[in-house]
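Title: Comparing notes on inverse folding

I've been comparing how different people in this forum approach sequence design from structure. To keep things fair, I'm posting one structure and asking everyone to reply with a full sequence. Here's the target:
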């Protein structure tokens, strides 16, 4: 039973452009009924925020515990939602027992985890973040690859290995190479974009089954410009490679914004609008997902704490699960409406 987008929802706005709209969540979110309702009303794709990661599944006993990720898989299939699996191989989610492992011990464990997990959900997931955050220009490798335990154990071909294994075990899943920081305006970000294009060309040239580029889209208000020619050019080159894009983890940090709530909410909304307008202009987008849906729970309070100590307001619903101007801005962008077509108003669900 495929989830029919609800009227006046973000998934119905997205459906008009042939794309999915969703968010990241965790099992505890499902216990907060207004939030679960907002997710079901607005989303037709969901991403496990952390409960499907390797370190969340592995146990020191050596056994794996899939109960939380199974619960999210069940929630998605019971409600006709697509599920975007996150993330098979990510250097920040290696189980503690393997953090100092290398060579065959690490590669055997990493392959076993990938095979077991992809097989468990084969035919059920819409897509997978197969490899997350492979690049780090500061690691000064010619290929821009981040020095991770995966690179150490397998060599640069770890990316091909992961994608070929996932493709063998779940041929219908869209396989995504997911990266952070491709959206920014700094020289380092431009270097990262160039390295990503070179990586994609190399991997696609050797037949690595990458179906989609994931652009995490963790934006910072007052830093993310509306006009961003380098990002436009990058997206055009991604399209030229025949790849689609998923906006996988969009949120807008307000740590540089004034404290005033109305001002912050307006600046955040404007940032979402300008960014999505640009991306939707330039490339085929399969799905747009935010990294959680309401300000009641955002990783940004830890990753980008505000200097004044006030809680971040980065998302589309406030802590009482009421729509914010950002909700209206994202809807307008998804509908590709003209500027100002729908003035952001504070409205309850
Ligand atoms: C973050 C989660 O939001 C946190 O709850 C967790 O403690 C750490 O990971 N890029 C990613 C995500 O790909 O998996 C990260 O999510 C945020 C950055």
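Reply #1:
Here's my take.
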């Amino acid at each position: 039973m495929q989830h029919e987008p609800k009227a006046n929802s973000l998934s119905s706005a997205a459906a008009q452009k042939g794309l999915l709209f969703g968010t990241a969540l965790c099992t505890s979110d499902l216990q907060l009924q207004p939030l679960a309702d907002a997710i079901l009303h607005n989303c037709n794709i969901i991403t496990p925020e952390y409960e499907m990661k390797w370190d969340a599944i592995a146990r020191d006993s050596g056994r794996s515990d899939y109960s939380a990720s199974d619960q999210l898989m069940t929630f998605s299939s019971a409600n006709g939602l697509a599920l975007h699996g996150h993330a098979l191989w990510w250097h920040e989610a290696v189980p503690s027992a393997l953090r100092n492992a290398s060579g065959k011990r690490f590669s055997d464990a990493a392959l076993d985890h990938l095979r077991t997990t992809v097989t468990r959900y084969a035919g059920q997931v819409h897509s997978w973040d197969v490899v997350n955050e492979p690049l780090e220009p500061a690691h000064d490798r010619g290929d821009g690859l981040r020095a991770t335990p995966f690179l150490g154990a397998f060599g640069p071909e770890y990316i091909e290995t992961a994608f070929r294994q996932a493709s063998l075990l779940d041929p219908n899943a869209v396989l995504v190479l997911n990266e952070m920081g491709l959206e920014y305006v700094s020289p380092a970000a431009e270097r990262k974009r160039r390295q990503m294009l070179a990586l994609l060309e190399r991997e696609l040239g050797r037949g690595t089954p990458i179906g989609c580029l994931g652009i995490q889209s963790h934006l910072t208000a007052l830093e993310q410009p509306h006009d961003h020619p380098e990002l436009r050019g990058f997206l055009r080159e991604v399209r030229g490679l025949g790849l689609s894009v998923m906006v996988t983890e969009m949120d807008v940090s307000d740590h540089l914004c004034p404290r005033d709530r109305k001002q912050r909410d307006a600046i955040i909304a404007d940032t979402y609008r300008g960014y999505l307008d640009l991306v939707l202009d330039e490339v085929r987008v399969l799905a747009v997902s935010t990294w959680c849906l309401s300000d009641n729970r955002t990783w940004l309070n830890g990753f980008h704490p505000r200097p004044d100590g006030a809680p971040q307001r980065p998302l589309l619903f406030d802590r009482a699960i009421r729509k914010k101007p950002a909700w209206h801005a994202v809807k307008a962008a998804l509908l590709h409406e003209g500027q100002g077509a729908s003035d952001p108003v504070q409205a309850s669900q």
